[in-house]
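It would be a great kindness if you could assist me with a short task in structural biology. The matter concerns a single protein, recorded as an amino acid sequence and a row of backbone structure tokens. Kindly check, if you would, that the fold set down in the tokens agrees with what the sequence suggests. Thank you for your consideration; the sequence and its tokens are set out here:
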Amino acid sequence: MNLLCLDLEGVLVPEIWIAFSEATGIPGFRRTTRDEPDYDKLMRERIDRLAAHNLKLADIRAVIGNIEPLPGAKEFLDEARRIGEVVILSDTFTQFAGPLMEKLGRPALFCNDLAVADDGTVTGYRLRQSDGKRKAVEAFNSLNIRTMAAGDSFNDLGMIGTAGTGALFRTTSAIAAAHPEVPAYETYADLLAHFRRFASEA
């Protein structure tokens, strides 16, 4: 079996927090895992900023409801699933993901959960497990599944390095320059061609 493990935000859909920043006019929400490799630090900043502006889960969901997949993302997934299996390994949250998964044809998704108070205040978050993307790929490898992983951010490097093959997709120039050993693509066609080559080697 050939399995393509993909990041979600920045790869298949726009960055949710950047969209939220644009909708609220609060620049601080623009920071993502492309900018901050410490995920816990980043999430605590976000939660503190939500509280400071009295923003609730419903406010975030209202923005997510208007987000569409990146152009060509759904077609890319459809074609990838003709070559092998696909799973999305994301640091997003179940409370965010539903509408986006519907628009992408409901691919398999492993992600995290928010802690939310009765009034909708986001009070914290619960990781599925620490370093979950890398550990998921390790688990797939242990089942003798041939894995390819692709993502755009610092938090994708672990799964990319653990997979049988990997690629960066629409990443920053700094991340690409720091990891010249990893192919970096800008188009779904190139990413799909990499997966097709990998699958053909089985």
